[in-house]
Each structure stands twice: as structure tokens, then as C-alpha cells.
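The instructor's notes for this session suggest beginning with a concrete chain rather than abstract definitions. Hand out the sequence below and ask the class to guess, before any prediction is shown, which regions might be ordered.
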Amino acid sequence: MDCADTYIKNIEAIANYGYKVYAFDFYEHATSNQMLVSKDGVKPSLLLDQILSFISHQSLQEVHIIGQGLGAWLALKVSGLHENMVNKLVLSSTAGIKWNPLLASLDISWTNQTLRWIFSSRSQKHPSLKLLNSDGGMLFPDELMLSEEELGLIKAKVLVVGSNQNEITPVDLAEYLVTLIPSAQYYCFTDSGFRPYLDEHQEFNSIVGTFLSE
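After discussion, reveal the predicted structure:
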């Protein structure tokens, strides 16, 4: 879950493992025709409603969800709210976690500076910049963030992906996340930054495809 076009190197490869793969744009993303965002920015709860509506509309059951950044948070929220709906999760550069004080300083996923760095080579009208409100702050209410206790209740099998070159969500956070989710396992990419599914797409496809098929 992110912009559908960012998974162009993964869709067919994952489908070759025998899965029907859906890749879609969230509201206001690249090819979406849904321009529903107010001047106050994108609210994570709106995107959560979108993914739940999509699963319901397609009558999907026991889904696997691959999520990146905000998409990883959404995958965890869907699994927590509807545990019978979700089978497995693949989480990369997970955001929206209430880290303990010792780790919180490492997570710069939701800062104005970081978002602008991610999209520095793109148009300043990129939709993800609308996650910022008019004051340059994030529209990520504290009550929507996932606590360590909530992560401990996740029933789905989870693959947490880390990246040694990821300056936004360091491997320390990914490694700690694995300890919080009961049925989680971990894989670390050595030459990837924020998006291993692009940087090392062949290895990513192999690791994820194998995990989903186990």
C-alpha cells in the first residue's frame, strides 16, 4: 500500500507465486481520481476507511497485506481491527508506532523535513506532502498511533523488513518491532534505503513470495 506505481517491480513477481495482487492508489495519490483532501491535509483515518472499504467491496478474505511507511501502519490497524480478515503482513519502514522513550528519538518518519527529503526530486505538489497540515505539522493524532500493547495483540503472521541504509526508519526500530509482535520474523536488506522493494526488488520479491507461501 502506497502509490500503486511504486510497486511496478513487484506486482507480477508476487502474482507468480499464485496470488491475485491488488495495487491501488490512496486518495490524492498518483492515478487516483478521488480528490477528497481538505486544506487541513490527509487524515490517516480516511486512508484506513479506504482500505477497509476496498477489502469489503472486493469480498476478500484472509488477505495478505504489504505495507510501506504509512501503509505498514494501515496494515497493522486492519489486522488489529479485523483479525479474521488478515492472514499475513509484510511491513517495511513502519510508521505510526508509539516507541518507548529510548527509541522514539530514532523515528523521524513523521517530520516535515523528512517528507520533503523523500520527495525532494518530485513535484512539491506530491500528495504525500498533504500529510502535512497548514502549519507544517503531521495530521497523525496520538490516539491513532499503535502502542506496544496493541502490537502484542496482533494475530497475523508478520514479516518485518529492515534496511541497513534506511535513514528514516533505522534498523534498530525494525529489530525492536519484531520483538513486540508475537508471530513476527525479520529480514534485513543490506543495500536499501527507505524503499527496499525498489532498491533490491528481486531479493524483496523472493523473500516476500516465499514468506507468503509458507
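Then share the key points. Residues 4-194+207-213 form a domain with the Rossmann fold fold (CATH 3.40.50.1820). The longest helix spans residues 44-57.
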